[in-house]
Amino acid sequence: MACMSFVQKHPKSGVYRVRRKIPPDARMAFGGRKIFLQSLGTKDPLEAKRLALPVLVELDKRIAQAQSQGGFWATHVRGHYLSEFAQWAGLTLPTDAPWFFDSQPEFRAKLQEFFRAKLPLSRPDQLEFQQYVEANHDMLYPVEKPKPVEPIRAEPQTILLSELEERLIGQGSYAKRSEQDVRKAFEYLRQIRTDVPVAQIVPGDIRELRDLLLRYPVLGRTRSIGLREAAKSNHERTMNPKTVKKLLGFLSKGFQLAHSEGWATGNPVLGIKVAKKTSTSKDAAREDFTPDDLTRLFSSDWFHGKNDRDYQFWLPWLGLFTGARLSELTQLGPNDLRKDQGIYYLSLTTTDGKRLKTKNSVRMIPLHPRLVQMGFVEWAQTGLPWKHRYADAEILSREFSKQFARHLKRIGLKRTGLVFHSFRHTFKTAGRMGGMIEDLNDVLTGHLPQTVAGKYGRNKRPVETLLEQIQKLEFEGLPK
């Protein structure tokens, strides 16, 4: 559960509270409320996070219980709400008289207003009530000749897992990497249940999938190994519980959609727990590059003896002196190298189809003087030639990450936590050691500043202020 995503600070009092949207099919259990609010009585964010967890756990239980009870009309009398609708709409006719509306669309529009104002139901429950009224009152529309009510086109009672996968992706606006994870999650589920209707999936299937994924190997070539086949053997390293939880999360979103559309009676993923750690799952922390690491890396053949400097040469240097993510660097184009009053900087934006991790990732990073001295500006002005090696930036990022890992291993840097992302950690550490203002260190790396940094450099251009911080970076072990 992403606890802090449901915790917010009250805009006036500053006291933290839990705020969560209640799914339409569970709102009747909360008195029709759309939003759940509960004060946590503290202004301390850490204390708020601790207090919010039991509140959210109990809230999840209440929502799951409400959703598992089936359709609204399984436990409520439609005739009672028919009378409530008549009273709300101001129809003071005798109980044995028909209702009159000018047209069918007018009646249905009025009914929708009633749902929004008094009776928040899921779409299938709304359709059931509408059909009940129209089937039992054949003179709703006196201005027209009585005629049979046209059947309401409803969604099929259920759909296949593969169809739910496509529906979820079609509605989700997922990034390419996330879309791949969604497809992977459904493919794993189909491995153990085949492409069955979603209504046939039960919690036991999800528990089996969880257990199989936690035993699935992540080293070597694993694509040809089925889940059940892989579980028969013991493996040195298996899928991390965080990854398993993420994949089950995508399935949960799919079954939420299926439940809301009437294709399934509930969400079989709800309540399924994933262990935080297993004996074969390794979650190695990212390490900084030490001075000896930097000496060995930047003295290797990637950086010496080549006639042409290419992406293998520049990406590590940029990673070290900008702290940018690899996926951010591989998306750079010629227009992203800019100049302001003599200062060159990289502009990281979401224009031209670029994707960044968070909204705080949009930023400018002045070039360190060493990058300028090495000739990066002249090289980049030729069009950033790495753009022509692969079909798109995502492929370049993925392939270079593998190349870099193999290169580190080849030159004797084999530590598990040492990867390209280690440049980002090394940048942050060097900034702190060099006296960089912490908030501006966060700004340069695209993190949300923890305090107000606006007072720094108030009378200077932002790029000047940021360059002052970049110039504080010093890395021991770099070749001269």
Task: Write up what this structure looks like.
The protein has four domains: 3-70, no CATH class; 95-147, no CATH class; 161-260, no CATH class; 291-470, Orthogonal Bundle (hpI Integrase, Chain A). The chain contains 18 helices and six strands. The chain has helices spanning 45-68, 78-88, 104-117, 123-136, 161-172, 176-193, 203-214, 227-231, 241-260, 291-298, 311-322, 326-329, 369-373, 376-380, 393-410, 422-433, 438-445, 462-470; strands at residues 7-9, 16-21, 35-39, 337-340, 343-348, 363-366. Strand 4 (337-340) and strand 5 (343-348) form a beta hairpin. The relative contact order is 0.07. The model is unreliable at 453-460 (pLDDT under 50).
Give the helix/strand layout.
Elements: E1 7-9, E2 16-21, E3 35-39, H1 45-68, H2 78-88, H3 104-117, H4 123-136, H5 161-172, H6 176-193, H7 203-214, H8 227-231, H9 241-260, H10 291-298, H11 311-322, H12 326-329, E4 337-340, E5 343-348, E6 363-366, H13 369-373, H14 376-380, H15 393-410, H16 422-433, H17 438-445, H18 462-470
